[in-house]
Amino acid sequence: MSGLDLRSRPAGATEANKAEAGAGSVIDLFCGAGGLSHGFKLEGFDIVAGVDIDDKCRFPFERNNDAPFVLEDVATIDANELNDRFTPGLPRILVGCAPCQPFSKYSQGRDDGRWQLLEHFSRLICDIRPDIVSMENVPRLQKFKNSVVFDAFVRALRNNDYFVDWKIAYCPEYGIPQSRSRLVLLASRYGPPGVPAATHSADRYPTVRHTIGGLPPIGAGGDHDEDPLHRCSALSAANAKRMLASRPGGSWRDWSEDLVTECHRKPTGKGYSSVYGRMNWDEPAPTMTTQFFGFGNGRFGHPEQDRAISLREGALIQTFPPDYAFVPEGRKIEMKTIGRLIGNAVPVDLGRAIARRIRSHLDEYGK
Q1: pLDDT tens digits for 206-245?
Q2: Catalytic residue at 31?
Q3: Which end of the chain is least crowded, N or C, by CB within 10 Å?
C-alpha cells in the first residue's frame, strides 16, 4: 500500500512543525455551514478548503474554520484544483456528506437526481487518491436502489487500494442530543481504519434539558435582546391552540377533533404522527431537519414554552458551539436560510468523533 510521500514536505520540515501545522490536511466536500469541518478543526486538523454550491455557506464556513470556501459544484470541480490545496507534508484527508435528501425516507420514492453526487465524490477520490476518506450520510443509503449505489462507492474505494470500514452511528452514543442515526464510512490507504467508538451509554445520553434548558425564555415569534439567534417562528391563532393542546413526546393525535388539521383527517395523512408535538426534557431531541423551527414540521415544540424551538436551540442540538457565527454581526437573521444551514449540517460532535478516530488511526501507522 502506498503511504505519504515524505519527499513532498517543504525543506526543513520536522515532526515538531508537522504537529504544529495539524494532524492532517482536510478538504470538506458538500461542506455546508461547516459542522463537519469544525469538528475536525477542534480536534487539531488543518482545514484547507470547503466546497459547496450554496454561497450562503461562505460566511459561516470561513469565519469559524479559518479556511477558504470554494463556490463550485462537486459534479464539475477539477480534481487537480483540490489536490493543489492540500498542505504538503501532512496526510491528505477528503471528507464529505453528499446531500442526504435523495436517500432519506422523506423523499417518499421520488427520484432526486442529487444521488449522483455520490458518484462524483467517488470520482474525486479515485483521481486525487487522498490518504484518508470519510463519508457520512443517512443509513438508508445502504439500501438505495437495491444497494447498487453504496456498493459501487465501496467497490471503487477497494479497487483503488483503500481499506474500508463503516457503521451506523446512533448520535446520542457520541454525546449528541438528538435521536439521529448516521452511516459513517472511513477508508484508508494505510490499513483498516476502524470506526468511531461510542462514548456514551444509554444512561448518559445527553438530553434536551441538558442542552437548551438554561436558555432564557422567549415567546412565539419573539427573540432575545442579547442573542440574535435565539429567535423563533410566530404561531397562527390555530397553531397557538394546538400548541397548548400538545404534550411532550406526543403529536396531533392528542388533540380534540376540532383542532386536527384537514390533511390529517384524510387516510393519506393518518400515518404522519411525528408532527405537531413537543420535545421531552429528559430525552434526546428528534432529528433536526432544515425546517426544525416550524412547529408543524416535526416534534419541534419546546417542552414547556408555547412555541417552536429557536434557531439557537436547534444549533445547540446540532452541537454547534454557542459562539459559532452564521451571519456577520448586525446582519439580519433570515429564519429559513439559517434554519436550512443548521438543519443540513453534520453535527459538530459527530465530526469530532470521526476526527478522533482518524487521528488514532494515523498514530497507529506513524503518520
Answers
A1: 999 999 999 999 999 999 999 999 999 999 999 999 899 8
A2: no
A3: N
